[in-house]
Design a protein that fits this description.
The radius of gyration is 18 Å and the shape is globular. By secondary structure, the chain is an all-alpha fold. It has a single domain, classed as Orthogonal Bundle (Ribonucleotide Reductase, subunit A). α1 packs antiparallel against α2, α1 packs antiparallel against α4 and α1 runs antiparallel to α7. The termini are far apart.
Length: about 280
């Protein structure tokens, strides 16, 4: 009998969905509450997703033969399915965005593609998986913030709100899959923590790089008011990063597991909204 390696709650299925999202018109303007910096920030996040999602799939799949728990094996397959749809939808998002607003997709993706190519050739598979574990936690924390009391997409264009909320829910559903695989295959605490420090730096670096490219194209890169609004959007009273420090720090605890942050209710609430 296989030892249980998955700690995803039994009442949290990892569901593959194929949303129909008509986002072309929304991407022409500032779809996030008519707030240019907020729109640019999320657009820059989207740029990182297709290459990132493929990296996550590959890093988890590498260990498919080392996992013995049938439940975790199924969750791995469901993880690949969700991430593949995220990759597809955000690639389409990014191509539409750049075509309509004049951004250079190759310049945006190029540095990340080059770095990931280097990582694939030079970094051991276990460290690559540790990086996936770290970024999956970061995205789960942001997903919880987005769908929690902050309700970040309340005033956003409906099509974009639908896309980002769907993505957030699935990030919460599969938030412990990479973590459970890492732990089941002998990943260390030291490597996990180091991966979070690196991943935090590079994620911020990549998003800010995208923001700067887009604002430069829009003629707002050197606008003090733009960056003031950005600071407020990130760190202000209702900023998207408010309340994320503690769940971020929790990752560094030796006894940490992603499902110590209970988000089942947020998933259930979203599902009920889809049925309404």
């Amino acid at each position: 009998m296989s030892q249980t390696q998955s700690l995803t709650p039994n009442n949290v299925p990892i569901v593959k969905r194929n949303p129909e999202l008509d986002i072309a018109d929304a991407l022409k303007g500032d779809w996030m509450n008519n707030h240019q910096f907020a729109t640019t920030w999320f657009n820059a996040m989207s740029i990182t997703f297709p290459l990132g999602e493929q990296f996550f799939i590959n890093s988890v799949r590498h260990y498919r033969d080392r996992v013995t728990d049938p439940k975790l094996q199924k969750e791995m397959r469901d993880f690949y399915s969700q991430e593949a749809v995220h990759l597809r939808e955000h690639q389409r998002y990014n191509e539409l965005l750049c075509a309509q607003r004049g951004y250079d997709l190759e310049k945006l993706e190029g540095p990340l593609r080059k770095r990931m190519g280097w990582v694939k050739k030079n970094v051991p598979a276990r460290e690559q998986l540790a990086g996936t574990v770290a970024v999956e936690h970061l995205t789960a924390v942001l997903a919880e913030r987005a769908l929690g009391e902050a309700d970040l997409f309340k005033g956003a264009h409906p099509a974009m709100a639908k896309l980002w909320k769907w993505h957030a829910v699935e990030e919460m559903e599969h938030k412990s899959v990479a973590f459970d695989v890492y732990r089941a295959t002998g990943g260390t605490e030291i490597m996990r923590r180091a991966a979070m420090r690196r991943s935090t730096f590079f994620l911020i670096w990549d998003i800010l790089g995208g923001v700067c490219h887009m604002l430069r194209k829009d003629g707002k890169l050197w606008s003090p008011s733009m960056w003031a609004s950005g600071f407020s959007f990130l760190f202000g009273k209702q900023g998207i990063l408010r309340g994320t420090w503690q769940p971020y720090k929790d990752f560094f605890r030796e006894d940490f597991h992603p499902w110590q942050h209970q988000t089942q209710q947020l998933i259930e609430d979203w599902e009920l909204q889809q049925q309404a």
